[in-house]
């Protein structure tokens, strides 16, 4: 049994020595790339999160279109405040079998009784407010998206930087082991294992850089920049556990500041304005009519004077006409429009109440997520990251002294990489939780206004 084990071990050693030349040519696919994080990160002149939000709010085309709609609503409000135009009617008549004829010029002025113009203005004001709040809501959501994508891109860049640091360390370790193999101090198998680990970290680096580039592409798109526009970020994922206000106070502030809730109230007011307009249109309306009429007879008129003589008189007669034209709501009193407006107002109130419930849930969830994620980040920073680095250093020294084998060191290295990646993920989650809290309460810090 012992002899069989020795034979097997000798066969493995011979096999490893026989394929050394072939393996050496395939151990490293190509030399490691130089550190390229500087392409994405610049802590001196890079773009901050606030600058990215400001650029997005200025350059986003969808938001620009919504601002144009607000301007259109202002013009519609101006139009709604104008009085109705008067009308002018010109006509005449002529006798078919005679010479009599007449001419008439008549104008009418709509009085718009029952508060019709005021109701029309109220609807235009409500529609304008809805457009303004829709633009403000889009700003809130866009600012949150930009800050979230900024955090994702920054986390991806930090992972890329860490991976490149690990790649440099793995390359140095591989070179050291390869030199020791050449000197006969270590078995060729250890060099092969180091080559596998080096290539694995190289693959991780490619994935990390792809994640960073994709996140930056998404960020450029939100900012209204071209995909190939030069941009480097500036900032960190550090989140201070700020002294937050009481959750009840935050909910109250959110219900006041949230533009989606204000928009729901505006829709409710619009429905009420439409009901008021329907009621005003269901009342009596009138047009004031004024005119002038001239009649000409086809034969001369004669009359006796004081002396009894027959004298000709003027055969033309002029008249001033006036009157009022009433619109009587006998059959159509806008009953259907009034009932529909009432139902729409009730529906808008239900949607507002549901929106307020959603806001309460979002604020509560943001508080839970922020508190827990900050706590998790602190645990990673104090109890995981530093300890993992110390463990790796101890195992490395023991490996160099010969009391631990290479697989032990590689296993500890992988645990260290996993711990550092988890720490960056914890930082990102805390950063995202902070953004979610700002977005849920619609804080001024979110848009920077």
In angstroms, what separates the terminal alpha carbons?
A: 80 Å
Give the uncertain stretches in residue-range form: 1-34
Globally, the shape reads elongated
The CATH class is identified as Mainly Alpha
The CATH topology, please?
A: Outer membrane efflux proteins (OEP)
- Count of beta strands: 6
Derived from helix and strand composition plus strand pairing, the structural class reads alpha+beta
- Mean pLDDT, as a whole number? 85
Number of helices: 11
Sheet with the most strands? 4 strands, antiparallel
List the helices and strands and how they pair.
Blueprint: H1 2-18, H2 20-26, H3 49-59, H4 61-80, E1 87-94, E2 101-110, H5 116-183, H6 188-223, H7 247-257, H8 259-281, E3 285-296, E4 301-304, E5 310-313, E6 316-327, H9 335-401, H10 406-441, H11 444-447
Antiparallel strand pairs: 1-2, 2-3, 3-6, 4-5
Question: Any key phrases for this structure?
Answer:
449 residues; alpha+beta; Outer membrane efflux proteins (OEP); four-stranded antiparallel beta sheet; two-stranded antiparallel ribbon; disordered N terminus
Structure description:
By secondary structure, this protein is α+β, with helices and mostly antiparallel strands. It has a single domain, classed as Outer membrane efflux proteins (OEP) (Up-down Bundle), CATH 1.20.1600.10. Helix content is 67%, strand content 11%. It is built from eleven helices and six strands. The strands form two sheets. A four-stranded antiparallel sheet has the order 1-2-3-6, with no helix packed on it. Strand 4 (301-304) and strand 5 form a beta hairpin. The model is unreliable at 1-34 (pLDDT under 50).
């Amino acid at each position: 049994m012992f002899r069989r084990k020795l034979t097997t071990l000798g066969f493995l050693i011979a096999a490893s020595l026989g394929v050394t030349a072939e393996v050496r040519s395939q151990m490293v696919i190509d030399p490691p790339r130089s550190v390229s994080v500087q392409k994405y990160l610049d802590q001196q002149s890079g773009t901050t999160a606030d600058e990215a939000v400001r650029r997005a709010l200025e350059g986003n085309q969808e938001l620009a279109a919504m601002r144009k709609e607000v301007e259109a609503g202002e013009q519609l409000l101006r139009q709604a405040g104008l009085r109705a135009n008067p009308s002018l009617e010109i006509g005449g008549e002529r006798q078919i079998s005679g010479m009599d004829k007449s001419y008439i010029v008549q104008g009418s002025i709509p009085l718009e009784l029952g508060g019709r113009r005021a109701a029309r203005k109220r609807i235009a004001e409500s529609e304008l407010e809805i457009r303004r709040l829709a633009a403000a809501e889009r700003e809130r959501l866009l600012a949150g998206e930009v800050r979230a994508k900024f955090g994702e891109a920054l986390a991806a860049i930090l992972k890329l930087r860490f991976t490149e640091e690990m790649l440099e360390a793995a390359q140095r370790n591989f070179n050291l082991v390869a030199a020791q193999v050449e000197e006969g101090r270590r078995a060729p198998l250890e060099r092969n294992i180091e080559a596998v680990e080096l290539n694995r970290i190289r693959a991780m680096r490619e994935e990390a850089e792809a994640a960073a580039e994709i996140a930056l592409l998404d960020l450029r798109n939100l900012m209204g920049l071209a995909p190939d526009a030069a941009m480097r970020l500036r900032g960190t994922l550090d989140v201070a556990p700020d002294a937050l206000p009481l959750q009840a106070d935050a909910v109250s502030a959110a219900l006041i500041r949230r533009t989606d809730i204000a928009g729901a109230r505006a829709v409710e007011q619009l429905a009420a304005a439409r009901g008021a307009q329907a009621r005003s249109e269901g009342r009596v309306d009138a047009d004031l009519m004024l005119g002038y009429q001239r009649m000409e007879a086809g034969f001369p008129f004669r009359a006796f004077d004081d002396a009894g003589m027959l004298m000709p008189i003027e055969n033309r007669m002029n008249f001033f006409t006036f009157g009022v034209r009433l619109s009587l709501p006998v059959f159509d009193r806008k009953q259907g429009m009034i009932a529909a407006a009432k139902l729409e107002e009730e529906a808008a109130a239900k949607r507002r109440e549901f929106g307020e419930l959603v806001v309460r849930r979002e604020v509560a969830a943001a508080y839970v997520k922020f508190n827990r994620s900050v706590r998790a980040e602190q645990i990673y920073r104090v109890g995981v990251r530093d300890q993992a680095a110390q463990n790796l250093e101890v195992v490395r020294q023991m490996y160099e002294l010969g009391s631990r084998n290479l697989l032990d060191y590689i296993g500890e290295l992988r645990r260290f990489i996993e711990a550092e990646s988890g720490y960056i993920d914890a930082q990102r989650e805390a950063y995202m939780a902070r953004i979610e809290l700002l977005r849920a309460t619609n804080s001024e810090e979110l848009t920077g206004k």
